[in-house]
């Protein structure tokens, strides 16, 4: 499963944990998960952060550029529910408010093992 990571408005806490999930200790790649640079090469999106007003349209465009069938993974409390930024003036909402979400990974930020386990369930390995 190849995923395009999109930061829709995060504090970068989730990005640090995603980096660790793909590092040698957690090694999400051994379960067939991979991050790719282009949505056109992806099987889905791994989205972090609340969706800010400035990122709503780019996020939708990235989703549309991803070939079908595609999955959307909301990673972190902000992506899942808006977290501490829910209701803020520059925020549209959670990822689910903009895109259909297939998998949610709660946590602020989620631990690398939780990210790896969610990706493992997605890949079926």
Features:
single chain, about 120 residues, alpha/beta, Rossmann fold
Descriptive notes:
By secondary structure, this protein is of the alpha/beta class. It has helices spanning 13-21, 56-65, 77-81, 112-123; strands at 2-7, 34-35, 44-48, 51-52, 71-75, 91-93, 103-105. A five-stranded parallel sheet has the order 2-1-3-5-7, sandwiched between helices. A two-stranded antiparallel ribbon has the order 4-6. Helix 1 (13-21) packs across helix 4. The chain starts with a strand and ends with a helix. The model has no long low-confidence stretch (mean pLDDT 96).
Secondary structure elements and pairings:
Blueprint: E1 2-7, H1 13-21, E2 34-35, E3 44-48, E4 51-52, H2 56-65, E5 71-75, H3 77-81, E6 91-93, E7 103-105, H4 112-123
Number of domains: 1
Instruction: Write down the CATH topology.
Output: Rossmann fold
Largest sheet: 5 strands, parallel
Mean pLDDT equals 96
Number of strands: 7
CATH architecture: 3-Layer(aba) Sandwich
Structural class: alpha/beta
**What is the alpha-carbon Rg in Å?**
13 Å
Instruction: Give the strand order, joined by hyphens, for the main sheet.
Output: 2-1-3-5-7
Q: What is the 3D form?
A: globular
- Which percent range fits the helix content? 25-40%
């Amino acid at each position: 499963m190849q995923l395009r990571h999109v930061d829709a408005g995060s504090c970068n806490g989730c990005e640090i944990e995603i980096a660790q999930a793909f590092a040698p200790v957690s090694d999400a790649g051994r379960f067939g998960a991979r991050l790719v640079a282009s949505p056109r090469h992806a099987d889905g999106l791994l989205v972090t952060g609340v969706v800010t007003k400035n990122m709503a349209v780019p996020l939708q465009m990235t989703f549309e550029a991803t070939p079908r069938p595609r999955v959307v993974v909301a990673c972190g409390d902000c992506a899942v529910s808006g977290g501490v930024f829910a209701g803020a003036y520059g925020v549209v909402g959670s990822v689910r408010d903009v895109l259909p979400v297939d998998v949610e990974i709660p946590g602020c930020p989620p631990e690398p093992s939780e990210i790896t386990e969610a990706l493992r369930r997605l890949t079926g390995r």
